[in-house]
Amino acid sequence: MNTYARFPVTLVKGQGSRVWDNAGHVYLDFISGIAVNTLGHAHPAMVAALSDQAATMLHCSNLFHIPKQQQLAEKLVALSGLGSAFFCNSGAEANEAAIKLARKYFYDQGSSRRSVISATQSFHGRLLSTLTATGQDKVKVGFDPLPPGFVHVPLNDIEALQQAVTSQTAAVLLEPLQGEGGVNIAQASYLQAVRRLCDEHGILLMLDEVQTGVGRTGSMFAFEQAGIKPDVLTLAKGLGGGVPIGALLATEKVAASFGPGTHGSTFGGNPLSCSAALTVLDVIESESLLDNVKARGEQLQQGLNALKQRFPVIQDVRGQGLLVGAQLSVDAGPIVTAARDEGLMILLAGPQVLRFLPALNVSEEEVNEALALLASTLEAQA
Ligand SMILES: Cc1ncc(COP(=O)(O)O)c(C=O)c1O
Questions:
Q1: Which of 151, 210, 317, 352 has CB atoms 3.0–4.6 Å from 304's, for a disulfide?
Q2: Residue that is last in its domain, among 286, 311, 333
Q3: Are 49 and 278 in contact (CB under 8 A)?
Q4: Given a cut of 90, is residue 287 above it in pLDDT?
Q5: Residue 5 lies in a domain
């Protein structure tokens, strides 16, 4: 079906931070499959782990215990400080599971709390529940009736959130850094105030780290940088490094509301996807990629700020780690196209924001090269 406005390019191969199209053109990849290819393309550890797993067992279903799934759950629990994990196949599924879990948690307590407050400009996925939680009208048009129980407030406005909390509120669902909505940072002080507010009212803080999680912002999870901990956390995108997997993590107390028959997924957490995710997490550690994300992220923001001096079309540079946005005074679409013609793949975050999402192992030289390609793109446009 015609669900995507695709670039007029057919990619056939990738290696590290480079991709090739079917005409033999090579591009520097600062899209990474929309924040998915955490280790770049064809990382030897991924190739080995996936080949090995394919030769052993791809899938067996959750009718059985799955050692790799158990290992992955333990690893994610240790990294996040949360209690247990459920695995699915995408970000939207992880958020759907989070919303179901919040409702079931209060149902189990005999409470009528069911509604979820999320932020305007947020993006939580395209399932009926998650597009309703999404704070952008454009994804909802034509899909009514939408499920009830969703409220939106502006990000970084704690008073608006306070006013929105009622006796029916079950959870607050936020991205610590809005990716699709324009690379908008939730301030640390705001997240801390949200945490306090949730504690005061006994409601759940659920963080959607589908785009920001797994090292993207320079810490394993973006919430660490705000010095808070959520009750519920969702992951997907970068977790599998290109193999579909989503995860829902929650404190033991909250997770206890999911028992056999309450939720499930045929594919979720199968041996192949869990091998991929374990490899991603191992390589982030063994190659000290969080340090690289911080250093390359700073280099990228500094370089973009230097370009801002030369090209007034760039109005603001913001982001965390390797999720970086450049706010333009004009439509960013033509710049994305022109950059691609120069050999640099970047994407949009809303109509006027360029978004940069390189692999977490991108090199200093590659970041410099991307900045040079963007400079020549902007020069040609000026
Ligand atoms: C923050 C966030 N949540 C959820 C989603 C939806 O993920 P998926 O496309 O895997 O369903 C996305 C996708 O862009 C996202 O950025």
A1: 317
A2: 286
A3: yes
A4: yes
A5: no
